[in-house]
Specification:
The protein is of the alpha+beta class. It is 29% helix and 25% strand. The chain contains 18 helices and 23 strands. Strands 6, 9, 10, 11, 12, 18, 21, 22 and 23 form a nine-stranded mixed beta sheet that branches. Strands 1-2-3-5-4 form a five-stranded mixed barrel.
Length: 590
C-alpha cells in the first residue's frame, strides 16, 4: 500500500472489500476486551469500522496499551461478519478488519470528558475542550449540517442571479442599535475601527454602485448578552440586497431559497407552505398570536374581548376596559377533565414571569366555573363563548392591562398552553412573513416619537405620508421572516431618497446636520443617483439550529463562546501586554 496512513476511510468498507488488504487510520473510539480477543471501534470523520485483534497478531499488545482517543494506523484484512454479529446500525456493520499490525501515531492522555456516547456534560468543560466535544457524533453531525446548509444557500443564491461580495471587517460604527466591538488604530492614535454589526451600509452602497443583486455569508459582531437563540460576540447571516425591487420582489427571491434549504435538510419533516409564505401584518400578529414571532404550529388564536367586559359584573376587567386597557382571551380547548390545579399553576406561572396574573374560566359540560364567570354572569359568558367559537368543555384564560404587556402575556400564555396540552404540531417547519411594521413609536421615557424598527426603511406613502399623517399611524416597508416562532431575519425596502431621509429623521428629532454627520457615506452616495433597493439577512446560525432541532445556538457553532462572551479554549478575552498597549497609545484604567 503506497499511502502511509490509509487505503480507505473508516466509513467506506463493505462486503465488496471482503478479503482485501487495507490500511485505516483514526481514533480509538471504544475498546471491548473479550478475553484474548480485543474489539476496537476505529473512528474518523467518515465513520466507524470495527477492528479485531487476537493473540495471533502483534497488534493486540499495541492496542491493549492505548487509551481511547489515541490515533493509530491499522493494517489488516477485511472479513465478513456473520449472523447476529452484523451491526445494521453502522454503515460498515457487515464487515470487520482483522488487524495484522497497529502503529501508534499519537497517544491520548486521560480524557477530561468522554467522546463516545451522548451523555450531557457541563458546558464549561465542553467549551474548554471543544476539540474533544466536536469529536462527539451529534456535535460533529451538527457542524457538517451547518457546512451543508451554507453550501446550499450559496448555490441557491447564485442560481437566483445574486453575486457574492465581501464587505469590510474593519469599518466605522454602525447604527444597528447594539454595542460595537472597537479596534484601536496603531497609526491613528486615539481613533478606533468598529467591527460591523451587519454589512448594512456597504450592501446599500453596492446597490448605489450598480451591482444589482448582492449576497454574502456575512460575519456580524455585536457586543450583546447571550441568549439561547443568539451567540454573544459574533454570528453569521445570509446577507442580501436587490435593486429596482418592491417588497414582493424580495419575497419572491428569498422564499424558494429558504424553503429549498429547509426541504433539502428536513430529514422527513414537512416544510409549509409549499408556495408563497403567508403575510401577517404586525398589528394582526400582536393581536392573534401575542408576538411578532408567531409559531404557526400552535393552532390557538388570541382574541380581543375588551368590549365584552365593558359594564361587566367583573369589576377588574370593567375598570381596565374603561381605562383604555385591553382584555385578551386565550382558549384552552378540551380541558374539562383538567383539575383546578392546571389553571392555578398557569396563574402562578404568569406571576412568576412578572405579571399581575392570568385570569381564567373553566367549563365542563356547559357549566362555567371560577370567579370571572361568576361575576360576569353565565348568560354573558355563554354569549362570549359563542362569539369565540368555543365548546362546552373548553377553558379560557385572560390577560388584561395595557395593550403591549397584555399582548405579550397572552402570547407567552398561548405558547405555554399549547405546550401543556400537546397542541403544537411536530416534525414540521411553518414559515410566515410579518409585514407592515409601524415606522415610529412613542418613547414613554424620553417623551418623544422615535423609530420603532429600522430608521433606514422607506415609509409606506413616502414623503406624502411623512408630511400629512400622524407619525404613529405610518407603516414602513419592513418585514421579518419567522419559522416555528424563531425570527430568522429582519429586512426592508430601503429609503434611498435624501429628502425622505431628512424628513423621517426630523420627525424623530434629528436635524439634517445630525443625519449628514452620522451617515455621511450613505447620504453622500444617495445624492449621486440611488436605485430603489431592499433586502434582508436570514441568520445562518438560527437556520441550522432549527434544522438540527437544537434548543441552544451554541450546539451549531463550531467554536462558540460561553454566556459571558468568553472563549474558554483559547483564553479570550485576555489582557494586552504593556508593549501592545504602548503601540496603540492606550492605557487601561480601573
Amino acid at each position: 500500500m503506497s499511502h502511509p496512513y490509509r487505503s480507505h476511510n473508516c466509513g467506506a468498507l463493505g462486503v465488496a472489500e471482503v478479503g482485501a488488504e487495507v490500511r485505516l487510520s483514526g481514533w480509538v473510539h471504544r475498546k471491548r476486551d473479550h478475553g484474548g480477543v480485543l474489539f476496537v471501534d476505529l473512528r474518523d470523520h467518515y465513520g466507524i469500522t470495527q477492528i479485531v485483534a487476537d493473540s495471533d497478531t502483534p497488534a493486540l499488545a499495541v492496542l491493549e496499551g492505548l487509551r481511547v482517543e489515541s490515533v493509530v494506523t491499522i493494517d489488516g484484512v477485511v472479513k465478513s461478519r456473520r449472523g447476529d454479529t452484523v451491526n445494521t446500525g453502522l454503515a460498515t456493520g457487515a464487515i470487520e478488519v482483522f488487524a495484522r499490525a497497529a502503529t501508534v501515531i499519537s497517544r491520548a492522555e486521560e480524557l477530561p470528558m468522554p467522546v463516545a456516547g451522548e451523555q450531557d456534560y457541563p458546558e464549561d468543560i465542553r467549551l474548554r475542550y471543544r476539540f474533544l466535544d466536536l469529536r462527539r457524533e451529534k456535535v460533529h453531525a451538527n457542524m457538517m449540517l451547518r457546512a451543508g446548509v451554507i453550501a446550499s444557500l450559496r448555490q441557491r443564491m447564485v442560481a437566483q442571479g445574486f453575486t457574492e461580495f465581501q464587505t469590510p471587517i474593519l469599518t466605522a460604527s454602525s447604527p444597528e442599535g447594539a454595542r460595537d466591538y472597537l479596534v484601536p488604530s496603531r497609526v491613528h492614535p486615539g481613533k478606533f475601527y468598529a467591527l460591523p454589526q451587519a454589512p448594512q451600509m456597504f450592501k446599500q452602497l453596492l446597490m448605489v454602485a450598480g451591482f444589482d443583486r448582492y449576497f454574502q455569508i456575512a460575519p456580524c459582531f455585536r457586543d450583546e448578552d447571550a441568549r439561547a437563540d443568539r451567540s454573544p460576540g459574533e454570528f453569521y447571516q445570509l446577507d442580501f440586497e436587490m435593486s429596482f425591487v418592491t417588497q414582493d420582489d424580495v419575497f419572491e427571491a428569498i422564499e424558494p431559497v429558504l424553503a429549498g434549504v429547509f426541504a433539502e435538510f428536513a430529514n422527513g419533516r414537512k416544510v409549509t407552505p409549499s408556495g408563497s409564505f403567508p403575510r401577517i401584518p404586525y398589528a394582526t400578529s400582536m393581536l392573534k398570536y401575542g408576538s411578532d414571532k408567531p409559531d404557526l404550529r400552535n393552532p390557538l388564536l388570541i382574541s380581543d374581548v375588551t368590549e365584552a367586559f365593558k359594564g361587566s359584573g367583573f369589576g377588574l376587567f370593567d375598570r381596565i376596559a374603561g381605562e383604555r386597557g385591553v382584555v385578551r382571551a386565550i382558549p384552552a380547548p378540551a380541558t374539562a377533565e383538567k383539575s383546578r390545579k392546571f389553571f392555578d399553576e398557569m396563574n402562578e406561572w404568569a406571576r412568576g414571569e412578572g405579571h399581575a396574573g392570568l385570569g381564567y374560566v373553566t367549563r365542563k359540560a356547559g357549566e362555567f366555573g371560577g370567579p370571572i364567570a361568576k361575576n360576569h354572569g353565565p348568560d354573558k359568558m355563554a354569549a362570549l363563548y359563542d362569539t369565540l367559537g368555543l365548546g362546552p368543555d373548553d377553558g379560557l384564560f385572560f390577560a388584561a392591562g395595557k395593550e403591549l404587556p397584555a399582548s405579550k402575556l397572552a402570547g407567552a400564555a398561548r405558547t405555554r398552553i399549547g405546550e401543556q396540552l400537546g397542541l403544537i404540531a411536530e416534525n414540521c417547519f411553518e414559515f410566515c412573513w410579518i409585514v407592515d411594521f409601524p415606522m415610529y413609536e412613542y418613547d414613554e421615557d424620553a417623551k418623544k416619537v422615535d423609530f420603532s424598527h429600522n430608521p433606514f426603511s422607506m415609509p409606506q406613502g413616502e414623503l406624502h405620508a411623512l408630511e400629512t399623517m400622524d407619525p404613529l399611524d405610518i407603516k414602513a416597508w419592513q418585514y421579518d421572516i419567522v419559522c416555528n416562532g424563531v425570527e430568522l431575519s429582519s429586512g426592508a425596502i430601503r429609503n434611498h431618497r435624501p429628502d425622505i431621509m431628512y424628513k423621517a429623521f426630523e420627525i424623530a428629532g434629528y436635524s439634517a446636520a445630525d443625519v449628514d454627520a452620522n451617515f455621511a457615506g450613505m447620504m453622500n452616495a444617495f445624492k449621486f443617483g440611488a436605485p430603489p433597493h431592499g433586502g434582508s439577512a436570514p441568520g445562518v446560525d438560527r437556520i441550522v439550529m432549527l434544522l438540527a432541532d437544537e434548543p441552544n445556538i451554541r450546539e451549531v457553532v463550531v467554536f462558540p463562546m460561553n454566556q459571558r462572551a468568553e472563549d474558554l479554549m483559547m483564553g479570550a478575552p485576555a489582557p494586552a501586554t504593556t508593549r501592545q498597549l504602548r503601540e496603540l497609545s492606550l492605557r487601561v484604567v480601573g
